C-alpha cells in the first residue's frame, strides 16, 4: 500500500481504529514492482494487496494459486474522472475527436499495464492503438509526465490524481474528455486477498467489515459533503498528498461503499491481456478471479449503503 488517497479504505480505518476494534493490526509494506507484490501474496508473506489488474496476477490465478480479487479500490465517477488522459494546454484545443490523437506524443508510466490498457482503449475509439506505436512514450512516473507536459516534450499523458490537478493548477494540462466516454466500465484499482488471508476466512471477513466502514466515511465526505473537512484533513495527514487544499480540490476516486468490483471492467482487462498474448493457460473469466463472499459477509454486518 502506497498510502495514495484511493487507499482511503485502509487509511481512514487505521486512523479511526476500525481495524483495531476488530482485532486487526495493519502493517504497511511497499514493493518495488507489482510482480513482487503478487509473489508475496502467493507465498503468504502479504495478506492483502492494494493494486491493479496485471497479467502476472491473472496468470497466478490460472495456476490455482490461492488469490482472489475481493473488493473495489478505485473507479472513475462519471464527470469526475480521477484517472484520465490529460493533454498539453496548447494541444487540447486541436484535439476534438479521438481520431485527432493520431501523431500526438502520448505518455504512460508502463507498458503491458493498466496505463497502456487505458490509453489503448482511448486510441481505439479513433481507429488507433498503442501496439507498435512510435508516438507512445514511456516515462518513469506521473510527476515526470507533468514535467514533460510543461517542457513540451509530450502532447499528453495518462495521469491520476493528484497529478491531474497539479497539471491544471500549473497551467500545463487540460483533462481531455470524460473517461465515461471511453472507459465507462473500467475497474482502475482492486483489493486482492492472498493465500494467507483466504486460509483465514474469519480474519478476511473482519478486514472487509473495517474496509467498507472506512469507504462509507469516504463516500459520506466526498459524495455527500458530510464531515468532509475531517476526512480531507485525515487523508492529508496520512496519505501521500499532504496539502489539504489540494486534497479538497482533487477529483475524487470512486470507491464503492458496498465493495463490489466492476465485473465488466475486470473481464475487459482479462481480454486485453489475452489479446496481447500475455496470459498463460486456458480462457479466463471475471468470475474465476473475483470472489464476492467477503463483501457479502460484510454487508450482512453493515447493511447496504444508499
TrEMBL record:
<feature type="domain" description="SsuA/THI5-like">
    <location>
        <begin position="8"/>
        <end position="216"/>
    </location>
</feature>
<dbReference type="Pfam" id="PF09084">
    <property type="entry name" value="NMT1"/>
</dbReference>
<keyword id="KW-0449">Lipoprotein</keyword>
<dbReference type="InterPro" id="IPR015168">
    <property type="entry name" value="SsuA/THI5"/>
</dbReference>
<protein>
    <submittedName>
        <fullName>NLPA lipoprotein</fullName>
    </submittedName>
</protein>
Amino acid at each position: 500500500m502506497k498510502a495514495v488517497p484511493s487507499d482511503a479504505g485502509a487509511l481512514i480505518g487505521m486512523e479511526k481504529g476500525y481495524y483495531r476494534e476488530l482485532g486487526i493490526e495493519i502493517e504497511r509494506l511497499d514493493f518495488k514492482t507489482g510482480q513482487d507484490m503478487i509473489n508475496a501474496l502467493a507465498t503468504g508473506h502479504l495478506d492483502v494487496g492494494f493494486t491493479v489488474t496485471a497479467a502476472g496476477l491473472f496468470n497466478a490465478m490460472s495456476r490455482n494459486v490461492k488469490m482472489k480479487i475481493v473488493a473495489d479500490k478505485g473507479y472513475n465517477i462519471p464527470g469526475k474522472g480521477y484517472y484520465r488522459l490529460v493533454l498539453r494546454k496548447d494541444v487540447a484545443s486541436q484535439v476534438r475527436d479521438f481520431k485527432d490523437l493520431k501523431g500526438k506524443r502520448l505518455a504512460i508510466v508502463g507498458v503491458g499495464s493498466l496505463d497502456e490498457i487505458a490509453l489503448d482503449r482511448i486510441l481505439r475509439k479513433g481507429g488507433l492503438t498503442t501496439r507498435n506505436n512510435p508516438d507512445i512514450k514511456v516515462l518513469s512516473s506521473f510527476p515526470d509526465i507533468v514535467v514533460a507536459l510543461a517542457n513540451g516534450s509530450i502532447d499528453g499523458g495518462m495521469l491520476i490524481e493528484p497529478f491531474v490537478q497539479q497539471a491544471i493548477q500549473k497551467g500545463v494540462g487540460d483533462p481531455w474528455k470524460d473517461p465515461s466516454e471511453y472507459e465507462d466500465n473500467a475497474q482502475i484499482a482492486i483489493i486482492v486477498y492472498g493465500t494467507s488471508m483466504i486460509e483465514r476466512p474469519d480474519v478476511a471477513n473482519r478486514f472487509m467489515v473495517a474496509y467498507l466502514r472506512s469507504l462509507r466515511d469516504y463516500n459520506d465526505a466526498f459524495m455527500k459533503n458530510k464531515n468532509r473537512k475531517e476526512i480531507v484533513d485525515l487523508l492529508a495527514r496520512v496519505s501521500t498528498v499532504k496539502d489539504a487544499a489540494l486534497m479538497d480540490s482533487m477529483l475524487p476516486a470512486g470507491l464503492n461503499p458496498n465493495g463490489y468490483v466492476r465485473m465488466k471492467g475486470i473481464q475487459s482487462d482479462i481480454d486485453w491481456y489475452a489479446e496481447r498474448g500475455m496470459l498463460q493457460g486456458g480462457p479466463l473469466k471475471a468470475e474465476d478471479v473475483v470472489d464476492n463472499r467477503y463483501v457479502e459477509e460484510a454487508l450482512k454486518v453493515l447493511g447496504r449503503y444508499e
